[in-house]
Amino acid sequence: MYKILAINPGSTSTKIAIYDDTEELFKTTIEHSSEEVKKYENIADQYSMRYEAIMKFLKEVDFDVKALSAVVGRGGILPPVKSGAYRVNDSMVERLAKRPVVEHASNLGAIISYAIAKPLNIPAFIYDSVAVDEFEDIARISGLADIKRESFIHALNMRAAAIKTAKKLGKPYEQCNLVVAHLGGGISLTVHKGGKMIDAVTDEEGPFSPERSGRVPCKRLIEMCYKNDERTMKKKIRGDGGLISYLGTNSALDVEKRIENGDAEAKLVYEAMAYQIAKAIGELATVVKGKVDAVVITGGIAYSKMMTGWIKERVEFIAPVEILPGENELESLALGTLRVIKGEEKAHEYDLD
């Protein structure tokens, strides 16, 4: 039996779980107040505070870290990497701590995991980093030579959902063609072929979401940029877009209550979100020429029967629809690491600058 500690740092929390093979022994969310976080100039400076909070919790629940077989952290924003596991090493930690591509809480996943694992002489991993980019060359063409399409997607949860679906279909993941939609505060979609996410509709190219505008008409957007400053415009498309822009809330539950109470505008906007998600699914189905084994809907909003029902009505002609609600990030990290430990997958060695 292999015991694995999974760590998922967020902006004001650190989620952790201990798995014994596939069984979750416990999980918790360690909250960090905004006042506490604001003390630190850079994300990497929060390392000691978060590390000590994790170790304190493990001591409180009387868990002996010497029982661990591996530690895995949420993969941060590195230069583009492959999907699957990477063994954390000094080079990765140095890059995330001192030369991050972007300041992001997930960068702490590898740093903290390595700090716990190294004294125990056990491996530390990241799994399906935010930086996973496996686009085919044809998918990188944007329409403007100055702009190259890049993969910034909910890779961890989408690939885990794809692997689960392949298992249910009784086929190796590498032999399946799947379209996966992650529905959360941001919405992104991927198409999986040959065990890789070869193209995507990112959260700035496709459906609007509870907080993000998604794809909007370019000319009108340019006009707005001349009337507002950069910070305002970035906030409009990431933070104040989507459901917030139309309905003043980012809560799908609140919107559904309004619909149940007869709010016609709420129904129109919410159904438009489902309509745009379905369009993006159809868009990605063309990448594999319509040969799709399943459409997978995952993420927090996948719990909504209203939303998934609307999407399913529009896309089930493409392929059977599998609904796997929740983000399941800690489970995805732990089970991915377990596959590596058992020799079912091979971890990559990080050797980028």
Beta content comes to 15-25%
For the record, the CATH class of the largest domain is: Alpha Beta
- Average pLDDT for all residues: 94
The largest sheet is:
7 strands, mixed
Keywords: ATP-binding, Cytoplasm, Kinase, Nucleotide-binding, Transferase
Protein name: Probable butyrate kinase
Pfam families: Acetate_kinase (PF00871)
Enzyme class: transferase
Task: Summarize the structure in words.
With 353 residues, the protein is α/β, with parallel strands linked by helices. The chain folds into 2 domains: 3-133 and 330-349, Nucleotidyltransferase, domain 5 (2-Layer Sandwich); 155-326, 2-Layer Sandwich (Nucleotidyltransferase, domain 5). It is built from 12 helices and 12 strands. The chain has helices at 34-37, 47-60, 90-98, 108-120, 155-169, 218-225, 230-237, 242-247, 252-260, 264-285, 305-315, 329-341, and strands spanning 3-9, 13-20, 23-31, 70-74, 85-87, 124-127, 178-183, 187-193, 196-201, 294-299, 321-325, 348-349. Strands 3-2-1-4-6-5-12 form a 7-stranded mixed beta sheet, sandwiched between helices. A hairpin with a 2-residue loop joins strand 8 and strand 9 (196-201). Helix 2 crosses helix 4 and helix 3 (90-98) runs antiparallel to helix 4. It starts with a strand and ends with a strand. The mean pLDDT is 94.
Annotation keywords:
alpha/beta, 12 helices, 37% helix, Aliphatic_acid_kin_short-chain, Nucleotidyltransferase, domain 5, 2 domains, kinase, butyrate kinase activity, globular, 353 residues, seven-stranded mixed sheet, Butyrate_kin, five-stranded mixed sheet
Q: What is shown here, in short?
A:
This protein is of the alpha/beta class. The chain has helices at about 35, 45-60, 90-100, 110-120, 155-170, 220-225, 230-235, 240-245, 250-260, 265-285, 305-315, 330-340, and strands spanning about 5-10, 15-20, 25-30, 70-75, 85, 125, 180-185, 185-195, 195-200, 295-300, 320-325, 350.
